[in-house]
Design brief:
Elements lengths: L10 E4 L2 E4 L4 E5 L2 E4 L1 E23 L1 H21 L3 H27 L7 E24 L2 E4 L3 E5 L8 E4 L2 E4 L3 E5 L3 E4 L1 E24 L4 E23 L1 E5 L2 E6 L3 E4 L1 E4 L2 E6 L3 E4 L3 E19 L5 E2 L4 E13 L9
Parallel strand pairs: 1-4, 2-7, 3-8, 4-9, 7-10, 8-11, 9-12, 10-15, 11-16, 12-17, 15-18, 16-19, 17-20
Antiparallel strand pairs: 5-6, 6-13, 13-14, 14-21, 21-22, 21-23
């Protein structure tokens, strides 16, 4: 089967296939473009939450000491049951720290036994809310294919050095010989599939609490705090989709001007090139980049007994900026035997 167009102004194949199960394929035009079709799809996801908590918690020095002793015992038992030496070492350290804290609590009770008769009830009201949104956009290509059981001949001529052949992100396959011939440039290059991600987040919270102590020591403790945070992140991936020229026998390239292989391979039992200008060979890399920025601020205030309110040393504003860039070199070959 022969398929051909004789010196038309331009021959374009975009995201499509031309196949000859038997025979040859001949393409002739002033300019030949065999490229990928592009598709863009986008998705957005949002998440939000809001909560309000009201609670009351009793505290007593003796009860706290008993809880500390139980924590020490539980940690020791869990450490003894594991067969991992590293976990045992970490567990032993945690057990020792818990035992030390419990011993200090007991020592305080011995030094001030009146604390046993005291009880504190903490009343707390807190509210938190958060929201995040992310958008992912994917721009991908579907390459073209020109394949014949016999020969494939692609010729660009009739417009002098403006007669070029461009094959991008596509494949040309011949059971016998594959020939690319142009009076101008022959350019074989990869296409890129690109994914971009943009996300934002923000959160805020506030709490107010009152602690009332009864017994040996009476008093009221008041505290309040608030916080706010926001951030964003951006990422981009680029994946190369190489062009492949494959011949069962001879793969031949002829150009009156330059020949460029940028993310492309040419293979066959024999590979021949006749270049009127420059021969350029470039390996294109997959890339991945990511940057993020986070900022936060908050304050706290406490008041105890009948004294004046004093702000804690907690106000602050923080921000962070991070980024990363990775490059991966795709497997690529050019040549023949």
């Amino acid at each position: 089967m022969d398929s051909g167009l004789d010196y038309v102004q331009a021959w374009n194949l975009t995201g499509s296939d031309v196949l000859a199960l038997t025979g040859d394929i001949d393409i002739q035009a002033r300019e030949v473009d065999i490229t990928e079709a592009r598709e863009t799809r986008s998705s957005t996801s949002q998440q939000s939450s809001k909560s309000t908590v009201l609670g009351a918690t009793p505290r007593n020095a003796l009860v706290d000491a008993i809880k500390g002793a139980k924590t020490t015992l539980d940690t020791a038992q869990a450490t003894a049951q594991t067969g991992n030496s590293r976990v045992q070492a970490l567990g032993a350290a945690a057990t020792a720290l818990s035992a030390y804290n419990t011993a200090n609590q007991v020592a305080e009770l011995v030094a001030a036994p009146e604390k046993i008769a005291s009880i504190t009830i903490d009343f707390n009201l807190g509210s938190n809310k958060s929201r995040s949104e992310s958008t992912e956009t994917v721009n991908s290509g579907r390459g073209s294919t020109v394949a014949a059981a016999g020969d494939v001949r692609i010729v660009a001529k009739g417009a002098g050095t403006d007669s070029d052949i461009l094959i991008r992100g596509s494949d040309v396959s011949a059971g016998q010989d594959a020939t690319l011939k142009a009076d101008g440039d022959v350019r074989l290059e990869s296409s890129q599939d690109r994914t971009t991600l943009h996300s934002t987040n923000n959160s805020s919270g506030a709490s107010i609490g009152v602690g009332v102590s009864f017994g040996a020591s009476n008093g009221i403790t008041f505290n309040a705090s608030a916080n706010k945070a926001r951030g964003n992140a951006d990422g981009q991936d680029a994946i190369q989709r190489n062009t492949h020229i494959v011949a069962g026998n001879t793969a031949r390239i002829e150009s009156g001007a330059d020949t460029t292989l940028a993310g492309a391979s040419v293979t066959g039992k024999t590979v021949q090139a006749e270049v009127g200008g420059s021969l350029n060979i470039e390996s294109r890399q997959d890339t991945s980049t990511f940057t993020s920025d986070q900022q936060s601020s908050g304050f706290g205030l406490s008041h105890q007994g009948t004294g004046r309110a004093r702000p804690e040393a907690r106000p602050g504003i923080g921000s962070g900026l991070s980024g990363a860039q990775l490059q991966r070199l795709p497997k690529q070959a050019a040549g023949g035997t």
